[in-house]
């Protein structure tokens, strides 16, 4: 455990201060440490955007190796395997296309956040207001579009759109089994099992459960499989994966909620799930972001899309 007494004449963001003190700390590792309750500011868990002041106490429950104290280390993002694939970018935000198998953040060097930083670094465009911040998350095995903000004001705007359900997120996936009816809106309740790293879906309310709403339509079928377009109305942990599995149509390749025999037979390494579209609302009152009104952004269609249409994946 490391304890720091803040020495700063002006207030500074918690993440920026920690990265100044420990250059080896990447944003991914900081986000993971915060989620695991390993960062305390004056004895409490606080967002990384919190401004720290002279005399504040920060406790870090991280190893010397994680803090980069055991050996000299350069910026962690330079160890990312490749620069990020950017779909859209402005001075305030960017939309990155995440490959399946790459975590959005975390301890390892090859994360989406580090790939974004590598891309910006190599092009000489690192943002002045710290590292880009994730505005939402995707599971490691899910591919597709991820929104990142380059400054605090944009982060508040984008997370506000998501919280108010004004940013439409549409996914493409392949299920083992054809859903009946071919199109529907599912409404149920989801509980997390933190110890097992799973969620469970229930048809009625219960303590600790949160409502989930998932709309789907069948695009095509091929043998035992169905290609679906899914609108994520609420955005809970593993929602699409668990919700479709609850109606007997698990996502192909899903190691947690899927059909393991089919996954082995078809040799899928990751779930056939892609965050394909991000659509902004038709009206945005904030003039700084009004240029986004009505715009939609798309990831490339995943490999399994055409194979289901052609009937070669079945």
Share of residues in helices: 10-25%
Strand content: 25-35%
Task: Tell me the distance between the termini.
Answer: 53 Å
Q: Kindly report the average pLDDT value.
A: 91
Q: What ranges have pLDDT less than 50 throughout 5 or more consecutive residues?
A: none
The gross shape turns out to be globular
Instruction: Give the count of helical stretches.
Output: 7
Q: Strand pairing plus helix content: what structural class?
A: alpha+beta
The rounded Rg comes to: 21 Å
Short description:
The chain is α+β, with helices and mostly antiparallel strands. The chain has helices at residues 14-21, 27-35, 112-122, 152-163, 239-246, 260-266, 303-310, and strands spanning 2-5, 12-13, 39-41, 51-52, 57-60, 85-89, 93-98, 133-134, 143-149, 168-176, 183-193, 198-202, 210-222, 225-232, 273-279, 296-298.
Notable features of this structure?
single chain, about 325 residues, alpha+beta, eleven-stranded mixed beta sheet, three-stranded antiparallel beta sheet, 7 helices, 16 strands, about 20% helix, about 30% strand
Give a description of the structure:
The protein has 314 residues and is an alpha+beta fold. 20% of the residues lie in helices and 29% in strands. It has 7 helices and 16 strands. The strands form 3 sheets. Strands 6, 7, 8, 9, 10, 11, 12, 13, 14, 15 and 16 form an 11-stranded mixed beta sheet that branches. The radius of gyration is 21 Å and the shape is globular. It starts with a strand and ends with a helix. The model has no long low-confidence stretch (mean pLDDT 91).
